[in-house]
Amino acid sequence: MAGLNETHDPQLRCWLASASAGDFTVQNLPFGLFRRAGASEAFRVGVAIGDQILDIAALLAAGAFDGEAAAAARLCSGGSLNGLMAAGSVKQSALRLALSRGLREGSAQQAVFTACLSPQAQAELSLPAHIGDFSDFYASIHHATRVGRLFRPDNPLMPNYKWLPVAYHGRSSSISIGGGSVMRPRGQVKGPEDAVPRMAASQRIDYELELGFYVGAPTRSGDTVPLDQAEDHLFGVCLLNDWSARDIQAWEYQPLGPFLAKNFASTVSPWVVTMEALEPYRAPFGRPADDPALMEHLDSAANRSRGAIDIRMEAWIQTEKMREQGLPAQRLSHSTFAYSYWTVGQMVTHHGSNGCNLIAGDLIGTGTQSGPALSEAGCLLELSEGGKTAIALPSGETRRFVENGDTIIFRGYCERDGYARIGLGECAATIVAAP
Ligand code: CA
Fold it and tell me: Please, are residues 46 and 54 in contact by the beta-carbon 8 Å criterion?
């Protein structure tokens, strides 16, 4: 684990004025893929800083890097982040340090760096990595309990929940970055009044407020991953909306779990905040004293003292009518990953505990991250209590689930006294009608 270093110093200032506040401060330095909007050129690796993007290949060509930082920058070719992700923390950390030093006020490299900037407003972004596999956990006990109560009133939490981080294998082909639309799926549904199931457009589209962690340094088939080394195999984090069709899910999910209710689309934020950037926002991890003691491989002193991460997460809505009336998006809920019943390290260790190998670029979803209060619920199924309670919007409309034309926007950030603010940017998409 890298620990705090000079790149986290809250006193650092960037010579770029737009980097003094907002999500993309000099302490953040998230990676993504970009090209000039409308151009047919290949996507390139960039780093968000203020309202600009730093072109890593251009910096390398201009001689801005040496040593391990140059080696890391050379891995940023090929139109994806997979090479840099696989490189491991030494090279990744060297590149971050070189970027941090070049962006600081007083840097002798300011002119070289300035020549490698492109405005974010004129850039098109792409999915940052080739995502081979997508595993989605279910790590918030508050979400699992509230949703479990709706599906199984007498038996909300299954007996395995407190023993292992429950997960299922999702689908990577339908993951895309935000900014576009998501088509309402059709599927088999069977309501309480239906004698037999019928094919219909889903009437219960929901979002799920999650984080997605990208795998970095891979593991080999047969390897297990000790908990204190689990995060060595992670590159960084994004926001993840695991869109869900609750009516399709309710009919299809037993006994093997969700399938078509989840795999029609998942939306991720385009910028990947590195594990190193998250270092100041670590938090202790604990569980209630009367819960089962953790098995040895899922417990460690380091995981207890710093296994959690205080990443604040927010879900917002802007309906078509709100857009027409010029009304801004309204926040639906807010939570933090620090509430999670399982840490991301425990998720990785559990994932590898049977010898399953992890590949650079694999995406590990945390599951919907709800807090203990209803206002901290990470999906509409919880907020509307299974569709029973309508949520009032400033346009005079109400919502129980997502309607056509609704844009759902996730935002994420980290803040802590004595440290800089860093943000994950936005993950937004609009639901459009089924064909
Ligand atoms: Ca999910």
Answer: yes
* Ramachandran angles phi, psi of 231, nearest 5°: -75, -10
Spatial CA neighbour of 295 closest among 164, 167, 166: 164
Amino acid occupying residue 325: Q
What is the location of CATH 3.90.850.10 in the chain?
Answer: 134-432
**Quick one: how far is CA 388 from the chain centroid?**
29
Report how far apart the first and last C-alpha atoms of the chain are (Å, whole number): 49
Q: What is the CA radius of gyration of the chain?
A: 22
For the chain, 435 residues long, the average pLDDT of each consecutive 10-residue run is 87 97 97 95 97 98 97 94 97 98 97 98 97 98 94 90 97 96 97 94 98 98 98 98 97 93 98 98 96 98 98 98 98 98 98 98 98 97 96 98 98 97 98 92
| CA 379 – ligand 1 centroid, Å | 10
Q: What is the pTM of this model?
A: 0.98
Question: What is the structure's pLDDT at 78?
Answer: 84
How far from the centroid of its chain's Cα atoms is residue 268's Cα? 6
C-alpha of residue 217 to centroid of ligand 1, in Å: 24
321 CA from centroid of ligand 1 (Å) = 28
Numbered ranges of CATH 2.30.30.230 in the chain: 6-126
Closest CA to 331 of 348, 312, 306: 312
User: What pLDDT is attached to residue 2?
Assistant: 56
Strand duo 363-365 + 134-137: pairing: parallel
DSSP state of 224: -
Enumerate residues 6+ apart whose C-beta is below 8 A from 346.
Answer: 165, 227, 230, 298, 303, 307
Fold of the domain built from segment(s) 6-126: SH3 type barrels. (2.30.30)
- Site of tokens 């986290």: 8
Going from the Cα of 395 to the center of ligand 1, the distance in angstroms, rounded, reads 29
Catalytic positions: 143
DSSP 295: P
Cα 67 to averaged position of ligand 1 atoms, centre (Å): 41
Comparing C-alpha atoms, which of 130, 131, 137, 88 is closest to residue 351? 137
Instruction: In whole angstroms, give the CA distance from residue 157 to residue 144.
Output: 7
d(CA 45, CA 300): 36
Which residue do the tokens 């509307």 mark?
384
How close is the Cα of 103 to the center of ligand 1, in Å?
A: 37
CB-CB contact of 405 with 430 (8 Å): yes
Top CATH class, 134-432: alpha beta
